[in-house]
Amino acid sequence: MNSHDPNMSPEERRSLERDLAAEQRLDGQQAPDDPALAADWRLKHELAALQPPALPAALRRRVLAHASRRVQTRWLLAAAAMVAAAVIITSLVQPWHSSQPVDRPEMVSAEQLGELGLALNTIGDGTRFGLRLAGQELAAGVSRLDLSPESLPYFDRVQRILAPAADQANGPST
Amino acid sequence: MKRRFEDLVDTHGGRLLQLARALLRRNDEAEDVVQETLIKLWHALPEIEPRRELGWLLACTRNACLDLLRRRQRGRAVLHLVAGAIAGADTDTQHEPDEQPDAHITAEQRARQLHAAIAEMPEPGRSLLVLRDIQEVDVATVAELLSLTENQVKVYTFRARRALRRRLEEESDEFARSEHVA
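YS: structure for the whole thing
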């Protein structure tokens, strides 16, 4: 309700403003002089003095018990979820399988044996092809190497060490 | 959260019950509504901002009461058949025969008389009297709760209070007349 509402008639507007002003006058600490307003003021204070009833103990207990139950349920759900997670992880990992010996030999079917042979042959063929290819590449590289003794590291020192011996060996003969 | 919940139950439980009783006029239904409201509060508490709990609680209680009243109204056709019997049973202690106005009535009787008279008021005057005058809930909260402007809250409260006063005066006059005749 707005006193500036264009749909409101002048009478309604006056009534609204009058009642609003009257209500505000009742906020005072003393009763207004107007008898009707004074009676309103007294009733207002009488109503304010009415105390709300206490919440019955049984009702309070029921409500708080519900809240406690919800807390307990949450803890139980969390514990159940943790147990379930532990069971799933344990069943997937199965740590006991690694330590326990196999009781019976595994039976290999002819089909599995055939697959194994095919896999080994494939690996063998691939390996042979790879080795052949590597050999060809290496041979080409080796042929390009300069194999002269001077290209070896520290050849000059080796030559100096070896040279006197060579000289001695050649000396007396000349 | 449990501590906060307990505090809210202890702080506002009584006023919720007062509002529900004023709207429903039946203690058992009022208690059921309050219990339901407080359990809803427990579930919704993480989402409710602090200091907005009272508005939430009052709105929840009032809506539950109005739903119940609507359901009750739908069943009125059936209840009408036994209206005479229901009229006595439907109202609790607020409508006991000893509630006639009297110059020497006790404070407790006067309180019951006021509650009974408020319970007879139409909405939203009834809620306004309980929330504004009895429980002194601030205007902004009540305006939000009842989807009214603050001026509407003030004007409607004034009018409801004046109507209540006139009703009480009429009851008092009737009682005085009956005493005089007797």
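YS: worth flagging: The mean pLDDT of chain A is 78.
IM: good catch. Also Residues 10-48 of chain A form one domain.
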